[in-house]
């Protein structure tokens, strides 16, 4: 019988709607109707009618009204979902339930009628529901006072006073229970928040540890190998093997650059937009060599920051394009345009080189193929256009951690 609404606008999705989906499931509605029918037929049990002091007419009328409103709410939910009309019916159902139960107390003429028990259960259920709305809670405050007023108008002040006291006790008990439940919920939420912060701190420490190990261990080894390869390359000047050593030296330098980028991404759980752009511009100019590399960037919110992995995906994707253009297209100029939007990052890399040969994209075993695979694995999209005047590669990467960087305000 308990239906609830969030304070504020009626929700159309979320946990509350899912709870109502279960509540309005056919089997749940059948159980509710069976309960209403059982209450309606209680007076037919020998001896019960005299004890409850109600007739079959009284219970059938009360449960009939309740069943009509509940079925109407269920049908609206089945056909239209969690619409504003449905939530209004929910409020009406709560009020109808409270009033029909108290109408049975009134019909019995006994302010200590057992039907109060059903009302108490309904009120306490609402008290422990965090989504309860004031418009529904008022039903359990106003309805008992209406009953007390009716007894008073009938010239029975004792019954009126008893009904008012019982109603007041129910409201006080529900209020105390509500306070305890809210306090328990807040404590549980605080516990979950602290656990999440602890997990994030542990993850951050692990990222720092890995970045230190990579920098101090693998980074040192690669730097030593690079120095050795450079020395060997100089000593082999004029030798046929100098070219092979030169290629090895270039691969070692690329490995060092990649390692620095990974360490950069690992050292911070989130990277501000300005930091990402600065890192990307530096790598593009390094990879462009003596080409004129221009990097332009704009953001819908300059305070935005990204998860380290998202920043790494972006840097790797763009640097792959710049490296590919500088190595194969023989351009004079490379332009990189970045635009950060709430749904992701759109970027464009274009050059004025010789363009791609026919079928080059399909035959590619690296370069653009790697770029496409990296973008698609991150949930993004890419498009390549090429002609004799140059190549344009545009792409979009989702940014699930798009958020204002409050520390930069």
TrEMBL record:
Gene3D superfamilies: 1.20.5.1930, Histidine kinase-like ATPase, C-terminal domain. Its EC number is 2.7.13.3. It is an enzyme of class 2 (transferase). Residues 184-211 form a coiled coil. The chain crosses the membrane at residues 28-48, 60-78, 85-107, 137-154, 160-185. Residues 213-401 form the Histidine kinase domain. InterPro entries: HATPase_C_sf (IPR036890), HATPase_dom (IPR003594), His_kinase_dom (IPR005467), Sensor_HK_TwoCompSys (IPR050482), Sig_transdc_His_kin_sub3_dim/P (IPR011712). It catalyses: ATP + protein L-histidine = ADP + protein N-phospho-L-histidine. SUPFAM superfamilies: ATPase domain of HSP90 chaperone/DNA topoisomerase II/histidine kinase (SSF55874). Pfam families: HATPase_c, HisKA_3. Keywords: ATP-binding, Coiled coil, Kinase, Membrane, Nucleotide-binding, Phosphoprotein, Transferase, Transmembrane, Transmembrane helix, Two-component regulatory system. One of its GO terms (molecular function) is kinase activity. This is histidine kinase. It comes from Archangium gephyra.
């Amino acid at each position: 019988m308990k239906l609830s609404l969030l304070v504020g606008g009626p929700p159309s999705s979320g946990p509350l709607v899912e709870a109502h989906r279960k509540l309005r499931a056919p089997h749940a509605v059948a159980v509710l109707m069976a309960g209403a029918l059982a209450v309606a037929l209680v007076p037919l049990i020998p001896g019960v009618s005299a004890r409850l002091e109600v007739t079959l007419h009284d219970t059938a009328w009360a449960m009939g009204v309740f069943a009509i409103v509940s079925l109407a709410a269920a049908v609206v939910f089945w056909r239209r979902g969690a619409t504003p009309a449905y939530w209004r019916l929910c409020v009406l159902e709560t009020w109808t339930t409270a009033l029909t139960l108290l109408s049975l107390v009134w019909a019995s003429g006994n302010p200590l009628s057992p039907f109060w028990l059903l009302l108490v259960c309904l009120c306490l259920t609402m008290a422990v529901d965090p989504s309860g709305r004031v418009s529904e809670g008022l039903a359990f405050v106003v309805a008992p006072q209406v009953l007390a007023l009716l007894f008073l108008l009938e010239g029975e002040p004792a019954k009126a006073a008893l009904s008012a006291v019982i109603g007041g006790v129910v409201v006080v008990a529900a209020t105390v229970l509500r306070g305890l439940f809210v306090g328990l919920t807040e404590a549980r939420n605080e516990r979950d928040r602290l656990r999440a912060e602890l997990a994030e701190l542990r993850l951050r420490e692990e990222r720092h540890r890995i970045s230190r190990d990579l920098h101090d261990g693998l980074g040192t080894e690669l730097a030593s190998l690079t120095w050795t390869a450079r020395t060997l390359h100089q000593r082999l000047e004029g030798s046929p093997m100098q070219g092979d050593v030169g290629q090895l030296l270039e691969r070692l330098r690329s490995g060092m650059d990649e390692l620095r980028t990974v360490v950069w991404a690992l050292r911070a759980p989130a990277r501000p937009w300005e930091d990402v752009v600065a890192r990307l511009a530096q790598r593009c100019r390094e990879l462009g060599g003596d080409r004129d590399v221009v990097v332009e960037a704009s953001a819908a919110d300059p305070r935005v920051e990204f998860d380290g992995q998202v920043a790494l995906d972006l840097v790797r994707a763009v640097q792959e394009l710049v490296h590919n253009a500088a190595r194969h297209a023989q351009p004079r100029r490379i332009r990189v345009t970045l635009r950060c939007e709430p749904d992701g990052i759109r970027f464009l890399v274009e050059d004025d080189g010789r363009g791609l040969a026919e079928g080059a994209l399909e035959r590619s075993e690296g370069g653009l193929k790697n770029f496409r695979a990296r973008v698609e694995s991150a949930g993004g999209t890419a498009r390549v256009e090429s002609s004799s005047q140059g190549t344009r590669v545009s792409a979009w990467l989702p940014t699930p951690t798009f958020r204002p960087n409050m520390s930069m305000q």
